[in-house]
Design brief:
mainly alpha
Length: 183
């Protein structure tokens, strides 16, 4: 049996995959047909490759549950898909309904990710303005105010501008970290 490396699969592809899996279960197709059709419906090359390896395991003497092993170890929603599939296969539970629930969970995660990105857009814009505003203000003062220009070009002014620029850079990095943590 070949060892499968689990690649990064985008959540949108996984949501389509699970929705097609549920439809295939309802239609009564075989497991290999369901998984193959669902993978090809996503048009995601990585997912298609992984599913091709999974459906080939039973043909070589392994079980489908064993074939899902790499997905059970995955750090994303593939783990949920494999757990639901194995649990329903073992207990006889309604697999289509369970897959519908997984698909809804995936769609909700996608919606939340989009919402966070939209909400972060305002913070990103504000952070850019707050970082650029001091530099713009100093440039305008140097151009139009002779006493300020004289001070800023003196030793004390250069130190003040350097400290302000360093603090501005630290603030920019801090804002970037805050925004990335939320995303």
């Amino acid at each position: 049996m070949r060892r499968m490396a689990v690649s990064d699969i985008d959540p949108d592809s996984l949501a389509v995959f699970v929705e097609v899996l549920a439809g295939g279960v309802r239609a009564g197709f075989t497991t290999a047909e369901i998984w193959t059709q669902a993978a090809h419906a996503t048009a995601n090359i990585g997912l298609i490759g992984e599913v091709d390896l999974i459906v080939s395991v039973p043909a070589h003497g392994g079980t489908f549950s064993e074939a899902l092993g790499p997905w059970l170890a995955a750090g994303d929603q593939r783990r949920s898909i494999a757990v639901v599939w194995n649990m329903c296969a073992t207990t006889g539970s309604d697999l289509a309904r369970a897959l519908d629930a997984v698909a809804e969970s995936l769609r909700a995660d996608i919606r939340h990710r989009h919402d966070r990105a939209a909400l972060c857009a305002q913070a990103v814009a504000s952070a850019r303005v707050m970082v650029a505003l001091p530099a713009i203000s100093v440039a305008i003062m140097v151009m139009f105010d002779a006493p300020t220009r004289a001070f800023l070009l003196s030793g004390a002014g250069i130190v003040a501008v350097s400290v302000a620029a360093a603090l501005d850079a630290i603030a920019a990095l801090w804002m970037r970290r805050l925004i990335e943590a939320v995303r």
